[in-house]
Design brief:
This protein has 123 residues and is of the alpha/beta class. It has two helices and eight strands.
């Protein structure tokens, strides 16, 4: 069940589940979800108080995971698109040729395709 608390100007949303445990657990996932697992029978007021107390830590974890965003977008494999290869950034070059081939030249990965349908030009 989703709940919310206000911490200063920030609103913290958290998913609350109850389980057979003695203490309250708070987890922040890389997808920026806050998961709270509470002992059975714990009151919502006490749970919200603990979450409010741990709010600075929760916001710190969210900021840590935000440093990895935006995630790599879905690739279209068109000329000029940038790709990581062996830890370095390369631009993709696509051209038509007599045989299918791939070569790495300086800061470019060149792809040669035989079919005109495979060749897309970036404008």
């Amino acid at each position: 069940m989703e709940h919310r608390i206000q911490f200063g100007s920030k609103e913290i949303k958290f998913e609350l589940t109850y389980s057979n445990r003695k203490s309250l657990g708070i987890t922040v996932t890389p997808e920026l979800q806050v998961l709270v697992t509470a002992p059975e029978g714990a009151s919502l007021r006490k749970i919200e108080a603990v979450v409010r107390k741990r709010a600075p830590w929760i916001l710190k974890q969210e900021n840590f995971f935000l440093s990895f965003h935006p995630k790599t977008p879905i690739r279209k494999y068109v000329a000029g698109e940038s790709h990581l290869y062996l830890g370095r950034q390369y631009n993709l070059g696509v051209k038509e040729g007599k045989k299918n081939d791939v070569h790495r030249k300086r800061n470019t990965i060149e792809v040669t395709a035989t079919s005109k349908a495979l060749v897309k030009k970036a404008w």
